[in-house]
Write a structure and sequence with these properties.
heterodimer; B: 178 residues; mainly alpha; 8 helices
């Protein structure tokens, strides 16, 4: 993350100097900062609302039930976590929200899951295997019906706005599979390296 | 269109009523639970702000610097060998860093090529099967103060690359070669 961030800014100025638009890039920093604040403000209401609803679902035992149903999947993806713990149930709720295309709900639920994972990991500042897996799954898109996209297709006058659904599903599954496999391989590699050091 | 509308307007109310109703059924003080949960949401939102400001500023700088155009020009000979039409290359590069930017590119491609053209379809599948990777990374790791993301960026970009290439090949397979 460290180098990605610094790299983006250095590369931006490098390219800007090449293209002669250094001013635009500086303006971009200010615009970006402003946009970030607006984004959080826009998210804030939904965030509170969904974490509130999730707390109800948690106290009533609903999340536990759903997490139980998803156990075969979570055991495969997060073998090191306690399968009946708070982290796994938050993860399951986030996945359900993603799948149904409720992005307003998915982010708050996902952040809640990150909070639970952090509690397990402690103040190391380092991502745990489970965090890596969870974040990669969230950076890939597992979405039953991409509503925004279909609306856009229909608005652009498509004769068949839904026609892309099957290829979208296939590509989503492929990309998620590659992401999950990559995490599994990389974390195993890290573990092996850790063993050698010790 | 009707079905999408039905699903997107129907899912939310069903969830609201199911969650609150089940809470009442199990004799939970639902409003108390809601307030506690909402307070936690407020704290999380505060925690993601610094990370978001840093990352979105950097991404915006990168996007307006004209780097995209140069990279596109540099990459297009290689990607065209893999069957990626030059028109969708900017979308593939923009998608991981800016969701609204990518949506703007898709809508522009629809306007120029039409949503049912092969370019329009590839753009659709790309848009639908991938996510705004860096935004997600920033928000998720930022919220819990992770400094060392280990291999996450690598794995996420690998998944994105797969999604992009698969979009092109799936469309060629489904809708015929151009």
């Amino acid at each position: 993350m460290n180098y990605v961030w610094a790299g983006l800014i250095f590369a931006a100025y490098l390219f800007a100097a090449w293209n002669g638009n250094v001013e635009a890039v500086t303006q971009g920093a200010l615009d970006g900062a402003k946009n970030a604040v607006e984004m959080v403000l826009a998210l804030l209401g939904m965030m509170c609302f969904w974490t509130g609803l999730l707390e109800i679902a948690k106290r009533s035992g609903l999340t536990e039930k759903l997490a139980h149903l998803a156990r075969p999947l979570t055991r495969l993806l997060f073998p090191k976590l306690r399968q009946d713990g708070a982290a796994v149930s938050a993860i399951v709720m986030n996945m359900i929200a993603n799948f149904l295309g409720l992005s307003n709900a998915a982010t708050p639920l996902g952040l809640k899951a990150m909070g639970e994972l952090k509690r397990l990991e402690g103040e190391t500042g380092r991502a745990s295997d489970a965090m890596c897996m969870f974040v990669v799954i969230n950076t890939a898109s597992i979405n039953l019906i991409p509503t925004t996209l279909i609306t856009l297709r229909s608005a652009a006058g498509s004769a068949d706005p839904f026609g892309i659904l099957v290829p979208v599903w296939i590509c989503s599954v492929l990309s998620v599979t590659v992401g999950v496999t990559a995490v599994k391989i990389f974390s195993r590699k890290d573990a092996r390296r850790g063993l050698c050091r010790r | 269109m009707q079905t999408v509308k039905m699903i997107s307007t129907g899912v939310m109310p069903v969830l609201f009523i199911a969650i609150i109703g089940y809470g009442l059924f199990r004799k939970i003080n639902v409003f108390d639970a809601f307030l506690d949960g909402a307070m936690e949401g407020l704290k999380t939102a505060g925690k993601i702000l610094p990370a978001l400001v840093g990352l979105i500023a950097a991404i915006t700088m990168f996007r307006v610097s004209g780097a995209m155009e140069l990279i596109t020009r540099f990459l297009s000979p290689i990607t065209s060998r893999l069957g990626v039409p030059a028109e969708v290359l900017p979308l593939a590069l923009l998608r991981p860093i800016s969701g609204s930017g990518a949506l703007a590119v898709v809508s522009d491609l629809f306007r120029v090529h039409g949503p049912d053209s092969i370019v329009g379809r590839i753009a659709s599948v790309m848009m639908g099967s991938t996510e705004t990777t860096f935004y997600t990374l920033a928000v998720y790791y930022g919220s819990v103060g992770i400094k060392d993301a280990r291999f996450t960026v690598k794995a996420a970009l690998l998944a994105d690359l797969t999604g992009m290439l698969a979009s092109v090949w799936a469309c060629r397979l489904f809708y015929g070669l151009i």
